[in-house]
Design goal:
Length: 140
């Protein structure tokens, strides 16, 4: 557990984009993960936020930060050295975390499920509730 003035905290899964398809890889870019701005909004990811990328296809994992790609394009571009670990066509899970001193009853992370073109499946994205997240998220 991590400490804070309010007491110990726990790092909890905040949100994830589930089984997205990598569309581009740019080895020569400085770093980061470019994500369609619409997906970032749905998954509550802000520019420069730390993201974990779990590659379902290759079994690799990496940590970087998110930057915005054009909205509505479905772009998911792995930039910089991470392009050695993930390439176009790979299926990935993109996750974010938050530190919490207290976890609200019924808390669940926000899960955005996408199709093969990285478009959110409208009936599968859970919504934020008054106590945190939807207490009954769909599970893989």
């Amino acid at each position: 557990m991590l400490g804070s003035p309010a007491g110990p905290t726990r790092r909890i899964l905040k949100s994830k984009i589930h089984r997205a398809t990598v569309t581009h890889a740019d080895l020569d870019y400085e770093g980061s993960l470019s994500i369609d701005t619409d997906l970032m909004r749905l998954a509550d990811i802000v520019p420069y936020e730390e993201v974990h990328v779990w590659n379902v296809t290759r079994g690799t994992r990496l940590t970087t930060y998110a930057i915005e790609a054009e909205a509505g394009t479905g772009v998911l571009c792995v930039n910089g050295a991470a392009a050695h670990l993930t390439g176009p066509g790979d299926l990935v899970i993109i996750a974010t975390y938050v530190d919490m001193a207290e976890i609200p009853v019924g808390y669940a992370p926000l899960v955005v499920r996408v199709n093969a073109r990285n478009r959110a499946l409208p009936d599968r994205a859970e919504e934020v509730t008054a106590v945190g997240r939807d207490p009954k998220p769909s599970r893989p």
